[in-house]
Write a structure and sequence with these properties.
single chain; BirA Bifunctional Protein, domain 2; 259 residues; 10 strands
Length: 259
C-alpha cells in the first residue's frame, strides 16, 4: 500500500511516468477500504489465529483477503489523453486491460453493468463487508460471478486504481474473518458467496499459475490501452521512502484503526 501511494505522489510530481504493477502479499493479508468500519466488520482474534496481516487501503470499497490472488495497481494522471473524467467511466477504460487479460486466459469475461434499480440500490447500500459479495460498475464477471474486485482513489490529480484478481477462493477462510449479526446471517452468506464470486482456477478447470496470470494481464493491458510496458526498478532512495511511509502510516495503529 505504501508503494502504491508513493508511486502516486511521484507521478503527480512528474518524477515517474504512469505505472502498472502486479504483486502478491506476504503474509496473506486482509485489506479494508478507506472508510470501512473495521472494528465493526472484522474478527481480529480470527485474523491473529490464522496469522493474517491487516491493513487499511487508501482506496474505498470493502474487505479483501489477499491470499490466492494477484493484485494489480495502475497509477495514471487524470489528464492522461482520452481519460474519462468520471470515476465510473475511468474504471471502464482502465479495466479494459483486465478484460483482455481474462480473455488471454481463455475465459469469457465481461463487464458488470448494474441495470435494475434493485442492483443499483445494492451497490449504494452493500449488505455485507465482503468485497466479493457483489460486483460493482465495470468490474469483471464470468458466468455472472465476480472474478476481480477493484477500488480507486484520486489524489493530486492522479488516479490510483488497484484490485484483486481471484486465482483461487477459500470461502470458509474468508468468511471466518468477518463478524456477522447472527449465525443465520453467516450461513446465508456461506450459501450466497459461491453464487456471487468465482476463481480463475475453478473456471479454467486447471491450475493457473501466478506467472501465467501476470503474463496474461501484462499483455492485456498493453493491448487494451495501446501502450508498451517497460520494467522499472526503484532506487535505494525511493525504497527507503516507501519503507518509511509503510512504517509511519500503513503499519500504524492510528491509520489502520481510524474507523
Amino acid at each position: 500500500m505504501a508503494l502504491d501511494e508513493a508511486l502516486l505522489h511521484w507521478h503527480a510530481e512528474e518524477k515517474l511516468p504512469p505505472m502498472i504493477r502486479f504483486y502478491e502479499w506476504n503474509p496473506a493479508t486482509l485489506s479494508v477500504g478507506y472508510f470501512q468500519k473495521a472494528k465493526r466488520d472484522i474478527d481480529f482474534d480470527q485474523l491473529e489465529k490464522l496469522n493474517l496481516g491487516f491493513v487499511r487501503r487508501p482506496t474505498g470499497g470493502r474487505a479483501v483477503l489477499h491470499e490466492h490472488e494477484l493484485t494489480y495497481s495502475i497509477i495514471v494522471s487524470e489528464n492522461y489523453p482520452n481519460m474519462p473524467k468520471t470515476v465510473t467511466e475511468a474504471y471502464r477504460v482502465l479495466s479494459e486491460g483486465l478484460l483482455k487479460g481474462f480473455q488471454n486466459l481463455g475465459l469469457d469475461a465481461y463487464f458488470s453493468i448494474p441495470e435494475t434499480n434493485e442492483q443499483k440500490e445494492a451497490l449504494a447500500k452493500p449488505k455485507s463487508a465482503v468485497c466479493f459479495d457483489a460486483p460493482s460498475w465495470y468490474e469483471l464477471v464470468v458466468e455472472g460471478k465476480k472474478v476481480a474486485g477493484s477500488a480507486q482513489t484520486r489524489q493530486e490529480g492522479v488516479i490510483l486504481q488497484h484490485g484483486a484478481i481471484l486465482i483461487d477462493l477459500d470461502a470458509e477462510k474468508l468468511l471466518s474473518v468477518f463478524k456477522f449479526k447472527s449465525d443465520e446471517a453467516r450461513e446465508r452468506m456461506r450459501h450466497k458467496l459461491p453464487e456471487k464470486a468465482v476463481s480463475i482456477n475453478s473456471l479454467a478447470n486447471r491450475t493457473v499459475t501466478v506467472q501465467e496470470c501476470i503474463e496474461a494481464f501484462y499483455n492485456g493491458f498493453q493491448e487494451a490501452l495501446d501502450i508498451e510496458l517497460v520494467p522499472y526498478e526503484l532506487t535505494a532512495e525511493q525504497q527507503q521512502f516507501v519503507e518509511q511511509l509503510a512504517e509511519t502510516k500503513y503499519r500504524s495503529t492510528e491509520w489502520n484503526d481510524k474507523y
